[in-house]
Amino acid sequence: MRTLAMIISMATLIDYIEAQQALEKEAKELMPYDPKECTFSIGPLRQDLYACLSCYRKTGQLNSVCYACSIKCHASHDLVELFTKRNRTCDCGTTRVDGPCFVRYPKWNNLDVKDYSPDIPDSSNKYSHNFEGRFCECDMPYNPLSDSNMIQCTLGVACDEDWYHEECIMGYTPTTVDRRPTGNGVDKLNDLDEPGMDAESDLRNKTVEKNESTISDDEISGNLLPLEGFPSLETFETIICWKCYNKCPEVKVIESLLECDFVEHIPNRQMQGSEEPLRKKLKGDYTKTIFLKSNYKEKLKAYMNDNPETKLGKFLMKYPFLYEEDPVYRPELDEDDTSSVFELGVQKLNSVPADQAAKGLAAYSQIKSKLTEFLKPFAETGKIVTEDEVKAFFTNIKKS
Ligand SMILES: [Zn+2]
Ligand SMILES: [Zn+2]
Ligand SMILES: [Zn+2]
Ligand SMILES: [Zn+2]
Ligand SMILES: [Zn+2]
């Protein structure tokens, strides 16, 4: 209770309540689901996954853990959000990660974890470069602040449901394509960025340097210019990438059946106006990424019902997610106002550099309802709580 007393002396309790509510809201937004169950025992699922790089560094084995385990077992580790993949079993508590699963075996919260014996991982799990925190053809970590749109391949036969930049789908190197709004409609296409540089600060530097731009900060953080030759996001639901297209001849049949938009993947493609390297292949020889419209499942299902014996019919039978509902397994929403998610949120926020208030909140949450009751009259009148009143309150709590 010492931390709490410290905090109380830092601020009035009314401020504290407000801070607490803000933190609680933030925790809820980060983690809307109840993390009470690990999905390990359910087996392979389409689910949200998190690759633990800390555990990878310790065990030398790629891994991914479920939502609950990302919060309760690996909150202080270096996690990469993988979003969803199909047919994956949680690796927490197996030989692939370091340490027991505290969700499945809560007893290890109170015992020496050196003594636990790990579970056997699901041998049907697959691991791509995503599990090392890298994505796309460019093999880069995802940076939501500077990256252009990334789109996940829905088939995944060749790419393991990888995510791709629009530029990389077309064959450009992402950093060589300038999609910043210029205000005068002239693209500075050959104005290449250094790979890995933060796009935003880079743009700021250039703006100052060249003193020719009228771009405001608002515009910088706004949308990028559309990529010429790339279908706009509203026109399609999902994609099948050029690698999967190349691997499965049936995808070509889907393409013509559904009259899909497509873009060719031309490696080392250059922007128009740049010096074009001699193409070894003719246009039409390149493999393509195809774009599936929102009604693609209905159409494939109808085809499947009418033509089950065709090559495509058999292909669809093998990959039923192409024409059937393919729900993502998600834990129950956490509706409970005073639930553990709040405390776990505190834990999660603590793994980020946290201030003392956040730490104190964990203790605070245990006596939250009593304290709220105690504070209500003060909050209503705006009166500041004195130290003596607070001391009296905690003395009573200890007694009760
Ligand atoms: Zn798990
Ligand atoms: Zn871990
Ligand atoms: Zn776990
Ligand atoms: Zn890329
Ligand atoms: Zn693919």
TrEMBL record:
- Domain (UBR-type) spans 36-106
Q: Which domain of life is it from?
A: Eukaryota
- Keyword Iron-sulfur in the entry? The reply is no
Q: What SMART domains does the database record attribute to this sequence?
A: ZnF_UBR1
What are the TM regions of this chain, as residue ranges? none
Alphabetical list of InterPro entries matching this protein: UBR7, UBR7-like_UBR-box, Znf_FYVE_PHD, Znf_UBR
Cite a single GO MF annotation: zinc ion binding
Chain ranges of zinc fingers (UBR-type): 36-106
Signal sequence segment: 1-19
Pfam families referenced in this protein's UniProt entry, alphabetically: zf-UBR (PF02207)
Protein keywords: Metal-binding, Signal, Zinc, Zinc-finger
Q: Which GO terms describe its cellular component?
A: cytoplasm
Q: What is the name attached to this protein's record?
A: UBR-type domain-containing protein
Organism (species): Pichia inconspicua
